[in-house]
Design brief:
The structure is a homodimer of 402-residue chains. With 402 residues, chain A is of the alpha+beta class. The first copy, chain A, folds into 2 domains: 272 residues, L-amino peptidase D-ALA esterase/amidase (4-Layer Sandwich), CATH 3.60.70.12; 117 residues, ArgJ beta chain, C-terminal domain (Ubiquitin-like (UB roll)). Chain A has a 6-stranded mixed beta sheet with strand order 1-7-8-9-10-4, with helices on both faces. A 6-stranded mixed beta sheet of chain A has the order 14-13-12-15-11-16.
Chain lengths: 402, 402
């Protein structure tokens, strides 16, 4: 392992401050902080990836533009309201959030990234938020990561945070991240927000590329309910305080950075899945032997999203027939008589039919809180993995009303 | 209306017999008949459409071949076991089902269509079934439709049946149908079986074309859980006992036949949705103003299949934000600021943002057991409709185990 895990989340990297405040954005809010602020007093380069949903929340539109600015210094984010489907007024509201944070921190508006998460279609109480944000610099601190992580939670049951430290050319470099998830989680982003900071010295273009690669291997591989959100955002800020020689591409140093970043994003992605709404099981669906990458992905995603496979897992029923069924309609190239399926390495299906493994053995595996389904299509060498969950009665209950 | 509804299901058309028998296919079976037989002593022409899932149950493979035979006379179908993912042995078993029915009725094997529905991956108890099928001619009768409809039920809570009568060139013509559904229901067929009979005189090719058109407007437009089954089959038999002049294409007489057939398939499709597993609401999702037919379909299917919209409906929450979200990720061409959404004709979203309709008014609509969501994309004139349901805690509970 070329990195070690440390504490401190987004404030683990040197020179980052974070904090939160309570504004009362949601009518039903019970005093829990609902605005987070992350800030670097030092110049940064920034990277970001956003939802591919054609319905994009106002803050996503503003952040995508501000990402082009040369020196992004802050991220302001609220929970309790998505500021999505709010029209021209919503765009203005998102801009006012950046303006309020910029004024409080002595920045230009475009140096601030903005994110929102919560219910769609409801206007934000922007006057109240402006007043709150104006006071937030007081709340910022070098140990404020946990407060920020808690302020972006919606139906999350715990705050998600991680940080790692590693060495590049004799300098200690750190990467830290916080995230929220819980619902509307699907490959290609979800209602998930993830903020990553690093004190590495790295060029903007190299940072963006590293982030894109990392997101593809983490947040784009998770699914809870198959619904892709309007607000997904992953943002990374690098402020160069580690004073390592600038990371260039390709280089062994960048590989080291990439591995550490991948660990951060994958850890947060896993935490999001494990803490998904009503989730009782964490399931890794691995497809190999596919004729192409896109076949592997289609098959894995169809299995990972199937309502019926997920209900069966919730009930501890191995039901590999539903897995065969999902592969069959996935659109992936497949030949039924070639398919093998394993549960935690134990063969359940061999050549498209039941193996001799006793059903009770498979039931034992599916009774656990975590297990892996491996599907070998025996048509090629492409593979893909999706991290998914069961579908529980609690998920339905949680999503019956706002 | 050019047709009138009558009773009698598949035995309403002259010269068709039907019946059922109890075999005990499922270990947990409690004496409910589980094999259905439909038979025409008169020569017939046949049509059929089958699942597009690449994993096809053995009976689907055999029926697709036998459909090419010139004079199909019978359909034998069992519930409680899908005979899917059962390998070469499963193919042999499906053939033995046709052989047993053919022997009992004095037919050739290929004059028999075969269908199965139930759990995937379990061998059928074929010896026991052969013994049962051998006795089934005794059970056949001109009023046996209801018995056959009941024998193909799985998690259905009631038997689904309909028949209509109409006039062609002075002759009374009848079409009757039975169906089963309940789970794994998705556009492009589902674990649904539907058997239609008619006494019309019609050529095989014209009959197949009429059936394909009809299925496209009915069974291919319904979704309960988004999972497409391995066993879906719609089979039609026409025995010519109405003695009408042969239906040719195109002709006003064929149009009359088509309308009546569409009524039969659409009625059965609706019954399948309404009786879906754990269903508490029947929702019609209508998209219009789409740039193309495929855009309209994508948008409608995304909304109709979204786990989150379906959970919200279950809870009586209009939550149009989740509908916007689903349209956004559907892949359909759309511009957020042009979208209007109506609940039973009441505007909820105008130009991509909340309308002035009070939320309580929308709640009132969604509280009902049936309502229609109309989405206008304002980009063209293409439209599409999908019939769907809510997603309830009962659905999850029903699908937790076998």
């Amino acid at each position: 392992m070329s990195y070690q895990q440390i504490s401190g989340g987004v404030t683990a990297p040197r020179g980052f401050l974070a904090g939160s405040a309570y504004c009362g954005i949601k009518a039903s809010n019970t005093g829990r902080p609902d605005i987070a602020l992350i800030y670097s007093p030092y110049p940064t380069v920034a990277g970001g990836t956003f939802t591919t949903n054609k319905v994009k929340a106002a803050p996503v539109r503003i952040s995508a533009v501000n990402l082009r600015a040369p020196d992004v210094r802050a991220i302001v984010a609220n929970s309790g309201n998505a500021n999505a489907c709010t029209g021209v007024g919503g765009i203005e509201t998102a801009k006012r959030m950046t303006r309020a944070a910029a004024a409080a921190l002595g920045l230009k508006d475009k140096q601030v990234m903005v994110c929102s998460t919560g219910r769609i279609g409801v206007p934000l109480p922007i006057e109240k938020m402006e007043a709150t944000i104006a006071q937030m610099p007081e709340a910022l601190g070098p140990e404020g990561s946990q407060a920020a992580a808690e302020a972006i939670m919606t139906s999350d049951t715990y705050a998600k945070s991680i940080a790692v430290e590693f060495e590049i050319d004799g300098k200690r470099v750190r990467i830290g991240g916080i995230a929220k998830g819980a619902g509307m989680i699907d490959p290609n982003m979800a209602t998930m927000l993830c903020f990553v900071t690093t004190d590495a010295v790295i060029e903007k273009q190299v940072l963006q590329q590293a982030l894109s690669v990392s997101v593809e291997q983490s947040f784009n591989r998770i699914t809870i309910d198959g619904d892709m959100s309007t607000n997904d955002s992953v943002i990374i800020l690098a402020n160069g305080q580690a004073e390592n020689p600038t990371l260039v591409s390709p280089s062994p140093q960048l590989d080291t950075f990439q591995r550490a970043l991948d660990h951060v994003t994958q850890s947060l992605a896993r935490l999001i899945v494990e803490d998904g709404e009503g989730v009782t099981k964490f399931v890794e669906v691995h497809v190999n032997g596919a004729a192409s990458f896109s076949d592997a992905r289609r098959a894995a995603e169809a299995v990972a999203k199937s309502t019926l496979t997920k209900c069966a897992w919730f009930g501890g029923d191995p039901n590999w027939g539903r897995i065969m069924d999902a592969i069959g309609y996935s659109g992936a190239k497949m030949r039924e008589e070639l398919v093998d399926i394993y549960y935690d390495g134990v063969v359940a299906v061999k050549g498209g039919v039941a193996s001799s493994t006793p059903f009770s053995k498979l039931q034992e595996i599916v009774a656990a809180k975590r297990f892996t389904i491996t599907i070998d299509l025996h048509l090629g060498s492409a593979e893909y993995t999706v991290y998914t969950t069961d579908l529980s009665t609690d998920y339905v209950t949680l999503n019956m009303g706002e």
